[in-house]
């Protein structure tokens, strides 16, 4: 088995990426999170735009995408306002969204976070209140809960932040 790699997604990978998100939706529904990402979210059009913008990445093993995520460095509009808490730092950060796995690769989140941390040490991420699995994994990987943010459609999400000094070093 060859080692994994993370690289920008390309249009030819879109069918596999859609399968990854479908698998993630099934997993979330089975683990007590039946409402996040339902009804086909994220849609193909959004993923294609993310690929074109160079913001959608894939984690590959043996040349096959096994996980996908959105990553960008710079101010994220959904993080401009935070309620029931505050951000710990206003330094430049990277935002990570829509992490999904097909379920065949173990330890996806730490691998993705290590990749992002190499680009910028200050990271922000959010998740659904019902996504207990992700909440646990974020805390396990050095993130601290900061408050509540709202997506463009008004849906609330729990906001997390990890500063360079919080980072869990890859082992």
Automatic annotation (TrEMBL):
SUPFAM superfamilies listed in its UniProt record: Acyl-CoA N-acyltransferases (Nat) (SSF55729)
Superkingdom of source: Bacteria
InterPro entries referenced in this protein's UniProt entry, alphabetically: Acyl_CoA_acyltransferase
The name this protein goes by in its record: N-acetyltransferase
Source organism of the structure: Yeguia hominis
């Amino acid at each position: 088995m060859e080692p994994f790699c993370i690289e920008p997604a390309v249009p030819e990978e879109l069918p596999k990426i859609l399968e990854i998100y479908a698998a993630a939706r099934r997993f979330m529904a089975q683990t007590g999170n039946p409402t996040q990402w339902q009804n086909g979210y994220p849609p193909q059009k959004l993923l294609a735009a993310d690929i074109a913008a160079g913001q959608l990445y894939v984690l590959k093993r043996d040349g096959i995408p096994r996980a996908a995520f959105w990553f960008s460095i710079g101010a994220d509009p959904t993080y401009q306002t935070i309620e029931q808490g505050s951000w710990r730092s206003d330094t430049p950060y990277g935002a990570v969204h829509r992490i999904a796995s097909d379920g065949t690769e173990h330890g996806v989140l730490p691998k993705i976070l290590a990749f992002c941390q190499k680009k910028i040490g200050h990271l922000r991420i959010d998740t659904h209140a019902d996504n207990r699995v992700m909440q646990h994994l974020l805390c396990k990987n050095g993130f601290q809960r900061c408050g509540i943010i709202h997506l463009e459609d008004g849906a609330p999400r729990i906001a997390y932040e990890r500063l360079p000094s919080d980072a869990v070093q890859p082992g």
